[in-house]
Inverse folding.
């Protein structure tokens, strides 16, 4: 596990490939409790968990596809389809609310014309809520393509949005 | 000429406010001035309103400057090459009053050492606890941890030594040490700071636990929202392995212990220990019914010690200085120190480690300095999203597990989120239910469905639809969650909801509550 397993990086990724997926799965088969490491690896590779991967994983781990599907859909991190070219996560938890996060989230939604949890029509940005980045003493916080941003204010947010829409 | 040694934190929150850019600017400025500088990337001291805080080694000790912007680099370097005078000079770091007032036991090294250097860790007293643990033996370790009075720092406050003894006394071919680093509570960041600023102390604590209970394998389950902590822990584990402190015959003893990092996947409920274990096993993070306790049947059905980062990180000093040393700090049944985290709308936000017993008012008004917005403090939420909202009238509450429980609150993982008088407490109560609905694992109906009904009932109260009847219904619903849920997510969501309704009824359209004269 390393930073490449974080799906918060820039989302330009390889297209789905069964052979590559098999290799991602094989890499982790010797570990105890391999399912989450496998899913992180697949998402790092492709940017999402393709439906076809569920069948491959189920076969490799000798569990049902329903079990794999249950895990994929349980965790907020795992995507069922690729994200936009950029991912902007805005912390929506209490410390950031107290520090003025609510109007910033509303501003981001208005500027991008999308609601939190969705991607702009041109595929440039996925705007997502996140519940705490542990940056509560430098709130409000955001994460842009894996980069942490603290003391967010309208000007810094607008700069991020401009970067995202380039 | 020896290089000027500077420190610029690599802590995620320091990075979030420009520490990387400051480092780059200092390097460029040094090149222009043709001076040699060595920049150590330390953890944060926890004085976050001063981040990025740059320190410089001087013959008289480390001197701090902050908050430094990239544009300050040239002027700062010129000052450092001269007499050190600069508008951002904070004086000797250890003399900064906010830091000097603290009792740093768990965070003794955080912000001081290079988190990537095993040698630096050892030069600052690291692995002395392990040395004593190895010579003392398993039984004595457990005895010392019991004597220290250390209670689980994750929130539940269960005595750590008792948990360890249970695992030690349970026979099994394989046992596990699991560190719960799924620090999901808003307003908390102490685990992240330790993992990024002093990762070896966590490794040492888990290793000691392994010796104490006879476990040879450990896992640190870190939330995916903490990518910097994941990188720091993986690097430290590799360094400890290279240095002979993990693997076979650790520190040349007969003991074996190794560990690895596992990443969570964005599920708040996995901070609950049994769902964390299921998640590690590769399942949905669904809460288990207890018994069996994880100490008897934990990870893969084996006896497992599962503790919070701060619990493990407190063990090396307990082993080094003895259980009595640690126990002598604190009050009542809350022994030792608590790393308290001040967050949200607060002037001096950061990590303040101190003995239990300090009052909430001292923490918020005196140490926190009130709000950053300059408006009056109206409410504080202590203990994360499942903690109660306290009004000023309860600011005399001492920071102590039992004192908070007695006032329908909890200290949880030690986070305090400060709100000013613009806060709408009905909205906060609604958010608590909404968050529970988003994060519920789905096992218990009161949590899974009750949280959704809770949002609807609060909406009706807010729009004055049968307000009295719906307020009574909300209270009833909260009791159902409280007594009908297996874990703290459903069980404690009523705390923020009911405390908001009880202490701030005017925000729900009711007449203000009469406060007792102070």
């Amino acid at each position: 596990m390393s930073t490449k397993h974080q799906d918060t990086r820039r989302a330009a990724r390889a297209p789905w490939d069964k052979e590559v997926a098999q290799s991602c799965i094989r890499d982790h088969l010797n570990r105890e409790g391999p399912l989450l490491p496998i899913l992180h690896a697949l998402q790092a590779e492709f940017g999402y968990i393709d439906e076809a991967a569920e069948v491959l994983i189920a076969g490799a781990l000798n569990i049902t596809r329903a079990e794999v599907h249950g895990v994929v859909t349980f965790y907020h991190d795992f995507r069922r389809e690729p994200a936009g070219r950029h991912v902007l996560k805005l912390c929506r938890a209490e410390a950031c609310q107290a520090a003025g996060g609510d109007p910033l989230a509303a501003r981001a939604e208005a500027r991008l014309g999308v609601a939190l949890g969705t991607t702009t029509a041109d595929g440039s940005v996925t705007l997502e809520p996140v519940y705490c980045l542990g940056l509560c003493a430098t709130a409000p916080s955001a994460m842009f393509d894996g980069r942490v941003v603290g003391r967010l204010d309208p000007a810094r947010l607008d700069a991020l949005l401009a970067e995202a829409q380039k | 000429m020896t290089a000027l040694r500077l420190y610029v934190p690599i802590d995620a929150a320091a990075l979030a406010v420009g520490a990387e850019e400051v480092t780059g600017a200092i390097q460029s400025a040094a090149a222009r001035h043709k001076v040699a500088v060595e920049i150590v990337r330390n953890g944060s001291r926890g004085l976050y309103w001063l981040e990025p805080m740059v320190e410089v080694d001087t013959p008289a000790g480390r001197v701090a400057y902050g908050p430094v912007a990239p544009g300050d680099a040239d002027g700062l370097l010129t000052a450092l090459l001269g007499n050190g005078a600069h508008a951002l000079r904070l004086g000797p770091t250890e003399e900064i009053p906010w830091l000097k007032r603290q009792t740093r036991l768990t965070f003794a090294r955080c912000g001081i050492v290079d988190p990537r250097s095993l040698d630096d860790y050892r030069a600052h007293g690291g692995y002395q606890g392990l040395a004593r643990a190895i010579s003392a033996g398993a039984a004595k370790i457990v005895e010392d941890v019991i004597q220290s009075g250390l209670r689980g720092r994750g929130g539940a406050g269960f005595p750590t030594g008792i948990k360890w003894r249970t695992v030690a006394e349970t026979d099994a071919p394989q046992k596990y040490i699991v560190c719960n680093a799924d620090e999901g509570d808003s307003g908390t960041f102490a685990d992240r700071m330790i993992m990024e600023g002093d990762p070896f102390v966590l490794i040492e604590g888990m290793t000691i636990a392994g010796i104490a209970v006879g476990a040879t394998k450990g896992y640190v389950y870190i939330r995916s929202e903490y990518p910097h902590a994941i990188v720091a822990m993986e690097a430290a584990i590799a360094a400890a392995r290279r240095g002979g402190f993990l693997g076979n015959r650790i520190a040349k003893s007969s003991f074996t212990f190794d560990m690895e990092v596992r990443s969570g996947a964005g599920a708040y409920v996995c901070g609950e220990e049994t769902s964390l274990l299921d998640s590690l096993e590769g399942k949905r993070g669904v809460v288990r019914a207890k018994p069996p306790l994880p100490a008897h049947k934990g990870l893969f059905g084996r006896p497992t010690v599962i503790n919070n980062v701060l619990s493990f990180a407190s063990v090396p000093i307990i082993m080094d200085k003895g259980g009595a040393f640690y126990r002598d700090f604190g009050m009542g049944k809350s022994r030792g120190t608590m790393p308290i985290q001040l967050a949200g709308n607060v002037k001096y936000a950061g990590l303040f480690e101190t003995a239990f017993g300090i009052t909430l008012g001292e923490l918020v008004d005196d140490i926190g300095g009130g709000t950053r917005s300059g408006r009056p403090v109206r409410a504080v939420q202590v203990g994360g999203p499942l903690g109660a909202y306290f009004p000023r009238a309860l600011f005399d509450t001492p920071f102590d597990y039992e004192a908070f429980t007695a006032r329908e609150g909890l200290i949880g993982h030690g986070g305090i989120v400060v709100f000013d008088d613009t806060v709408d407490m009905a909205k906060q109560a609604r958010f608590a239910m909404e968050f529970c609905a988003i994060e519920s694992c789905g096992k218990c109906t009161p949590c899974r469905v009750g949280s959704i009904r809770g949002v609807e009932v609060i909406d009706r109260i807010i729009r004055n639809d049968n307000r009295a009847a719906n307020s009574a219904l909300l209270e009833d619903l909260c009791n159902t969650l409280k007594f009908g849920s297996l874990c703290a997510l459903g069980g404690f969501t009523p705390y923020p909801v009911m405390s908001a309704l009880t202490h701030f009824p005017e925000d729900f359209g009711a007449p203000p509550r009469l406060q007792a004269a102070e």
